[in-house]
Design a protein that fits this description.
It is built from 6 helices and 12 strands. The chain is of the alpha/beta class and about 260 residues long. A 7-stranded mixed β-sheet has the order 1-12-11-9-4-3-2. A 3-stranded mixed β-sheet has the order 6-5-7. A two-stranded parallel ribbon has the order 8-10.
Amino acid sequence: MVRLINTDKDKRNPDIYSSLFHQILKGKNEFDPGYDQLALETCHVAKFICQLDKNIEIARKYESPDFILKWGSRIIGLEHEILVNNESKQKEGSLEDLFKGLEKEYRKINPDKKLLLTIYPHPYLTFRKVDKPSISKEIMFLLEGFINHNLLPENNYIDRLTRMPHSHLDFSCNLGAWWRRNLDIETLNNAIKKKEKKISEYRANSGINEQWLLIVIGSTGESSYEFETIESFQNVKGTNFDKVYLLEDFQANLYEVK
């Protein structure tokens, strides 16, 4: 039976979260290709630990499973999975890749520039792969006009731009708020089933018998799911994971699925 893990949000310790986060990210280069993914995974696991039990430690970052946890005398393998709608996620990824490419291009020409540029694309902006070079050129012209002259003419790509001082150059793509899909039991069961196929691999790789699965939903993007009611999730299928948890990221709710 799915249950909400009761946590007193007023008593959460940001110092524990920060310590767990920096334990994994300390010394990492934020410009490395895998940094953003590592930061996101670590952020989710740190939130998870803060809500479940602050005495849980991250023993180390791993692969297959993603993390090794220590909880008293128990050693636990933790696999992390973000559950999204793939069609919407593909669109979000295309836009994020576009603006990160422009950031890289702009940095080459302006290596000493330091600012955070937040970009709000038109909500329904899409493009074909073949059109990406020409669209990138037009958008770069708009970005440079705003950075240099604080001007953003009417256009087909960007609704709004904001900027502020920053420690380095960062083009941040803000895709705005959307009505998110309610998570249904079939989608959740399929996510568990997908990871179920690898549980023997996780045990063999890590040498750890106890394996947990953490499924994350509830970010702010269109591709994300949200949790409706516990009553909708009383038919979760059996699994060989010792524990399965569902973290609703933005709402900061943690559910025990198994």
